[in-house]
């Protein structure tokens, strides 16, 4: 699987998780979580004060996750554990990772769920979506736009691959958006707040 594809889907998943976590009030001794939506029979729980755009993102994520499961993609506990081990190493230790989670009002369970969803969607994307083809003209057009805005000053050949990847990423994100919108239209969604 392409490293860029992993990065795209990781950012997508983590941005949903970050938005969901950051928009909720500070946790208290008692949680006020309740069912805020039902997507194809699956309950989504959150604080009832959740902002609408955050709820929309959680719903989009759920329909995409359900589609990946429907297509037969699975993520094992071993895969999730391996990813958490890599993250702990990047943080220095398991304890440092747990401290970072706590500082961001997250739990290990939330991280595990997020990683499992990310990996599931990565598998779906890598198998179901063809790698977009980028025309030379598109790359040159982007290059000229960036030069006109004085964003870049390198020769075309030095940054051609980076620009091509940027265009490919945008195309892939658009395709993902189309799929999610189709899934939203086909899904039974009940918002309870």
TrEMBL record:
What protein am I looking at? Answer: peptidylprolyl isomerase
Q: Which InterPro entries match?
A: PrsA_foldase (IPR050245), Trigger_fact/SurA_dom_sf (IPR027304)
Q: Which reaction does it catalyse?
A: [protein]-peptidylproline (omega=180) = [protein]-peptidylproline (omega=0)
* Record's signal peptide: 1-23
What organism is listed for this UniProt entry? Answer: Desulfuribacillus alkaliarsenatis
The molecular function terms in GO held by this entry are: peptidyl-prolyl cis-trans isomerase activity
Give the EC number: 5.2.1.8
Q: Which UniProt keywords apply?
A: Isomerase, Rotamase, Signal
The protein's enzyme class: isomerase
Q: Which domain of life is it from?
A: Bacteria
Q: Which Pfam families match?
A: SurA_N_3
């Amino acid at each position: 699987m392409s490293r860029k594809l992993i990065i795209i889907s990781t950012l997508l998943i983590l941005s949903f998780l970050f938005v969901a976590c950051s928009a909720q009030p500070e946790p208290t001794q008692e949680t006020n979580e309740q069912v805020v939506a039902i997507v194809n029979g699956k309950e989504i729980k959150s604080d009832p004060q959740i902002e609408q755009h955050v709820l929309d993102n959680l719903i989009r994520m759920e329909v995409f996750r359900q589609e990946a499961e429907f297509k037969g993609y699975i993520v094992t506990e071993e895969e999730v554990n391996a990813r958490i081990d890599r993250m702990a190493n990047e943080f220095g230790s398991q304890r440092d990772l747990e401290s970072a989670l706590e500082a961001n009002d997250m739990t290990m369970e939330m991280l595990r769920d997020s990683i499992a969803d990310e990996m599931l969607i990565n598998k779906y994307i890598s198998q179901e979506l063809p790698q977009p083809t980028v025309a030379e003209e598109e790359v040159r057009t982007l290059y000229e736009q960036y030069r006109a805005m004085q964003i870049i000053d390198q020769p075309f050949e030095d940054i051609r691959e980076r620009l091509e990847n940027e265009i490919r990423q945008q195309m892939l994100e658009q395709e993902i958006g189309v799929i999610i919108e189709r899934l939203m239209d086909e899904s039974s969604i009940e918002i309870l707040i």
